Amino acid sequence: MLADALDLLVCPACGSDLDLEERTVLCQRGHSFDVARQGYVSLLAGAATKLTGDSADMITARGEFLDAGHFDPIATAVAAAVGEDSDLGNPRILEIGAGTGHYLARSVDMFEDAVGLGVDISKAAARRTARAHPRVASIVADAWQNLPVRTGSCTHALSIFSPRNPDEIRRILCADGSFVVVTPTQRHLGELIEPLGMVRVDDDKTRRLGESMAGRFDRVDRHAVDFTMELDVAAIAAVVGMGPTARHLTPEQRSERIATLPTPTTVTASVVVATYRPRLAMTSA
Known about the structure:
Oligomer: single chain
Order of helices and strands: HEEEEHHEHEHEEHEHHEHHE
Radius of gyration: 19 Å
């Protein structure tokens, strides 16, 4: 799959075109990057990133939770937002912070000829995304630096519960592309926050999203996705273990707190799915 996505990528060191020779990605100036046996390639270059990607345990927990279908209404809403552009030819869909590639795979399936590109700083995530779908490629890259992605090459970009770099997303999107963003509301997983000591949604999240998009994108669609889930102990452990709370609580602390909850526990999922279009004449934010 990596070969089919090479037309989206550029060398992170010099910005030139890339080719694939056996298990090596290389550019005409001699920079080379080995393809991991799991199928992804790391295109990190320059100074070491300060970002810490999700651990292998977090990615495993996310895969278990998403594969069980608990967030299927969110994945369906994301794919529907991507599918609004059904008249676009040659769809090229990039996801920032792709994690397991779950949402990207669902979006790629909206088009017979779409190619997906998952970007994540975590090698564990890149390994999982590389096998998420036959038409999805996976790279390791830092979303807060210059992405090794060709300017104007993507028709869609996704940011699902992930930090975003609006300047870079604006650069890599084509003029009529779309940026689909999913953000949690304060009700999201609300029944678990107090008893488990989970990280809360920032009160200013919506305002900060609007500010970050100002001058770069115009919002063209926004709708809420709210539903309840009946979660058993294993599902609760997975949803806690796949998010930022996993960095703050030990497995023992999580297990002790989860044991105090009823089985099953009714839990609310509440997010906003918003679609943005690039401003043709960008102004300073």
